[in-house]
Amino acid sequence: MNIHHLELFYHVARCRGVSAAARQMPYGIQQPAISAQILQLEDSLGKTLFQRRPFALTPEGETLFAFVEPFFLKLPAMAERIRGGADHSLRISCPEIVQRDYLPALLAGVRARRPGFHFTLESGRYEEIQTRLRSGQIDIGLSTSLGAKDEDIRHHELLRLPLVLLVPAKTGLASAEEILSLDRIDLPLVTLPRGESAVIAFQQELQQRKIEWFPMLELASLDLVARFVSEGYGAGLVLDIPGIKRPPGLRALPLPGFPEISFYALTLGSHSPMVELFINEAIRVIDGMGKSKA
What we know:
The model has no long low-confidence stretch (mean pLDDT 87). The strands form 3 sheets. The protein has a 5-stranded mixed beta sheet, sandwiched between helices. The protein has 11 helices and 12 strands. By secondary structure, the protein is of the alpha/beta class.
């Protein structure tokens, strides 16, 4: 059997599909190339290894995956052993907002303290990060979180972020209460997607106060929320992130009594010295951003 074919099969089985494997492979390879080489592997064995739609390993696929999984899982540890324990690499996953506002300064700080540091980076939200940690695809994730935490995932709280409403300054609104006290709120609400922690926490608090105000526009990033508000499309729900720069002409209205959203570094089990260094540097960078804002 071709060892490269076995590696591709390992990633397909771990990611539960060819498309997911193509997105998460540690090196670039297109979906058609993966599919073609898996077909070659199946032809060489004379067996189908998995059903395509919906994805499910066949008994032969289960047997092969059980055989190859330990080898590929142990490769990172073997690489570290050969290097003499001096592995200065990290596999990181975080949402786009973290990549833009925190990661550049954080990575620069880690590189200054650990010459030779290198990393891989994937975009991912909270649930995706947990899945990747459990499957050994990443070493650390950065994300907001709300509610109960799974016991196997360690949550290292880095800071707590208040919720604020963004409105155009020209509206003359001076407080969030001016909006929330209305019997009928006609102002469109602009938010991140409804599954995001900030939106869930905001809606839960509104329900407690018996206020109905639901998202009219759901956008992919806090940048877009701010931009749509600046162009007069409504009021935007955002996180009050230290050091963030917003478009001119906007006013941030605090939301007293609303829950804060915790921002975490996520790890699984015991972690390497590089992960510990990364977390300590994240705390230092975030603390510096908070002081510069003050």
